[in-house]
Amino acid sequence: MREVNSAGRPWFVAMGLLASCSAWAVTVSPESVSMPSGESRTIKIGKVSGTLAVTNSSPAVASLTRVDASTYRISGSAAGKAEVKFKDAKSDVKVKVIVTASTPTPPSPTGALNGRLLASNCFQCHGTSGTGGFDRLAGKSATEIYGELREFASGKEDANGIMAAHAMGFSDAQLKSIASYFASVR
Full-prediction pTM beyond 0.85? Predict the structure, then answer.
């Protein structure tokens, strides 16, 4: 005796039908993404039956770009939530998208630690306390040291010398930090 379902069909036939339908359902991976604004993630699509329709519930939060037949790129534009729906002839799948506010780049260290780190390039000739053999920096003001560094960086003083080569490698803010560090050591 065969078991039948409520429609009077044999149970194994009904089960086989269900299995074949789910085997052809469109698939996505991953089914949810989370990212800071300004970043992107890729979504892989598979088992598409017929034409694929794609809708985005919130384009202001996340934009969607087709990369190729099986890949889409979701880019976070603004903090919020969106839902991207992939629909083919037989099924549809939704991808939940969460975009967080981008994390600002932490400011670079300031003060004596940053100045000391930058000035470490100078220690071989000027010493860690500014009392080295070439030019004594100890006892000079930050303004005086910075002024000299600016002259080297601009090429006004010894444009082809070692000090110009070093000074040109630093930003104005970094030169000020170096000058402040050497002015602070006694």
Answer: no
